[in-house]
Write a structure and sequence with these properties.
Blueprint: H1 5-23, E1 37-41, H2 45-55, E2 60-64, H3 67-77, E3 81-84, H4 93-101, E4 111-115, H5 120-128, E5 133-136, H6 141-154
Parallel strand pairs: 1-2, 1-3, 3-4, 4-5
Helix pairs in contact: 1-3
Length: about 160
């Protein structure tokens, strides 16, 4: 019998990561020592490319494009911050954030929503799910950089 939701979520993350490792669909990540790692979870290649290009000199940036590789990349890349879209084709970003917050292993990773969902209710739902910040698309790269730096500093990452 499980003690709580954290155990269940950790087991779900472990099972998904093991499935990816078994199939060999995702190559393991190597890290640049001393660089802060940012995981971008967005199905829009343009957004992912913009973030990678803008942050590449200062941070190590990795993208996740599917539910399957997300779990493996999360575990192998060990990000210091996750930039997460809400409107993903394979899962709702709000639910994914909630799952991360219920996982003993991943609950301390800061999450910044970057979403085209702009209503006050959307922002409130993102923050209620446990996000540390919320920005809307379209976005200014300089504002995103500023917000990321502030989150990393505030949270001691």
């Amino acid at each position: 019998m499980k003690a709580n939701n954290q155990d269940t979520n950790d087991e779900r993350f472990d099972a998904a990561a093991a499935g990816v490792q078994a199939t060999g669909n995702v190559v393991g990540q190597s890290h640049e020592p001393g660089k802060t790692r940012i995981l971008v979870v967005d199905d829009d290649a343009v957004v992912e490319g913009m973030i990678r290009e803008s942050f590449g000199n200062q941070y190590e940036v990795q993208a996740s494009v599917s539910c399957v590789d997300f779990v493996y990349v999360l575990d192998s890349f060990r990000p210091h911050l996750i930039i997460l879209d809400i409107g993903l084709p394979w899962i709702n970003g709000i639910d994914l954030c909630r799952d991360l917050r219920q996982s003993s292993r991943y609950k301390r990773i800061p999450v910044l929503f970057l979403s085209a969902m702009t209503s006050p209710d959307d922002v409130a739902a993102g923050l209620k799910a446990g996000a540390n910040g919320y920005m809307t698309k379209p976005f200014c790269v300089n504002e995103l950089k500023k917000t990321v730096a502030q989150l990393l500093t505030q949270l001691g990452t």
